[in-house]
Amino acid sequence: MDHISDLPDELLHGILSRLRSFPAAVRTSRLSRRWCRVWASVPDITLVSDLIHQGTSFLDMVDAALAAYSADPPVTLRNVKISMPYHNDQAGRVSAWLLFASQRVAGKLDLRVDLAYHKQLPDEIDLPPFKRAMGIALALGAHFHLRLSPVGVFAALVDLNITLATMDARELEVLVSSQCPRLRNLTLMHVTLVNGSDLSISSATLRRLKFHALETRHLDVSAPNLEEVKVRYVADVHVAAPNLAELVLAKIRQFVFADAVGHLRRLEVTQCSAMAPLMRQLDMVDELRLQAPIGEEEFKRFMDDTNNLPKCDSLSVSSYPHRTLPSVLHLLRRVSSIKKLVILLSHPTDPCSLACACRSPHSAMAHDITLESLENIEFHLFRRGEEYVEILKHLLSIPTVRKLKSVSVHVSCAHHPASLRNKISNKVRLVSDVGLIIIVSESWHVPMHRKPEPELNAIASSLL
Fold first, then answer.
1. CB within 8 A of 185, min separation 6: which ones?
2. pLDDT tens digits, 64-111
């Protein structure tokens, strides 16, 4: 006797959702008449192109699956995920999918399209207002011009993530500032802005902003509840956010706080000419992360810009091996009260010239450094070099390092992690008797393509 078929739809939906495979859910329609349409009311849809045999049109399958959900009574969807390769005729279809999702999705929409570098003219697609969706993630490619409606409201939207798309700057301003009354997290990555190189964003609810938009000269952000900001490749940034706690900047020429912040929980700066004036605006940073640049002139400017640093508890320094020691010692002279030091050693580069600042005799001297609060030292290695041993020797030679409790070494290793762990342990113990933690993670390879699931070609054909 088939007791499962007697269960109510809600329980059957739970069973099909736990399969974590939309094609597998479709296959259950062959079990009996009772199961024939159950899959078409499951609140989660996942359609991924690499699960479909090449003989089947992925676009046709998506159209057929969404059409099955369009039957009465309407089904409210919790999550919709569509990941597909690029097709020349997909713009109109993608717009139709977005319209469908705007009417049905009450949870999250995740739509991803593979890049098409050969596309010369962008295809326009429309993003209609989503009244009930709480999350929208779009990865479209620059060949898509995402058009935003000036009317309508994304009433429930909390998370908005747009990657690799072309957008109108003025439409984007209206979207964020006027059409998303509950928006908390906004991510705009590798977005190309047209009709304006200046962007102004205002939001009373925004908490986190991650921004990297091409052709942006000036970014103005006004958000009283904003806590985290990550901005890359913008000339000038002006932020009015009195509750800001975390700031990550890369390739920024000028950064201005509209409010007196004073204290940050985390500050990360990479190759910014705005670094020196930014540091002068801060009194305390719990976690300070800095990256020493590659070029000799840039490195000299980095050393000058970091002559005055705010107080901090934790300092992280990322550098290329031959510049790590002078970078670390230079910074330690400016932040003597740190409790934790993290050093990230990148892959080696060509040796610098004899005139480089890192070759100065003073750059390797540690006798004038005071580190009475230092308790933990961490090394993160991306290669098997032994530069960390020399750096550790210099740090331990500082007379005021008396509270050191542990040294940890994290390294990625493709082969023989156990022998590498023993080798590191032996080398470090030659220069230190403090507690030692060694973490060796093996490198692993993710295959580029997955094999299609069995019978998916037949299943896809049955939908058409």
1. 158, 159, 160, 161, 206, 207, 208
2. 778 777 666 677 888 888 887 766 567 788 899 999 999 999 999 999
Cα(64)–Cα(17) distance, integer angstroms: 20
Q: In what order do the strands lie in the sheet with 236-240?
A: 198-202, 218-222, 236-240, 254-257
CA distance 256 to 271: 17
**For tokens 């997909």, what's the residue?**
90
CA distance 383 to 242: 41
How far is it, in rounded angstroms, from Cα 164 to Cα 159?
Answer: 17
- For the segment 399-415, what is each residue's pLDDT rounded down to a tens digit? 888 888 888 888 776 55
Look at residue 404 in the predicted model and tell me its pLDDT: 87
What is the rounded distance in angstroms from the CA atom of residue 370 to the CA atom of residue 189?
41
Q: What confidence category does residue 137 fall into, taking pLDDT thresholds of 50, 70 and 90?
A: very high
Whether the per-residue pLDDT at 9 is higher than 70: the answer is no
- Predicted confidence at residue 455, as pLDDT, reads 37
Q: What is the largest CA-CA distance in the chain?
A: 86
Amino acid at 391: I
Q: Which residues pair with 228 in a beta bridge?
A: 208, 246
Contact 387, 428 (CB under 8 A): no
pLDDT value at 51 more than 90: no
Which of the listed ranges 54-58, 131-135, 196-200, 369-373 does the model predict with the highest average pLDDT? 131-135
Determine which helix (DSSP H) or strand (DSSP E) holds 269, and give its type and residue range: strand 262-270
Rounded to 10 deg, the angle between the 387-396 and 417-429 helix axes is 30
Q: 309 near 334, Cβ under 8 Å?
A: yes
Rg of the chain's alpha carbons, rounded to an integer?
Answer: 27
Beta-bridge mates of residue 440? 411
> Which residues lie across from 268 on neighbouring strands?
248, 289
Distance CA 463, CA 37 (A): 12
Q: What is the pTM of this model?
A: 0.81
How far, in Å, CA of 194 to CA of 172, rounded? 10
Q: Say whether 91 sits in a helix, a strand or coil.
A: helix
Helix or strand (DSSP H, E) at 100: helix 91-104
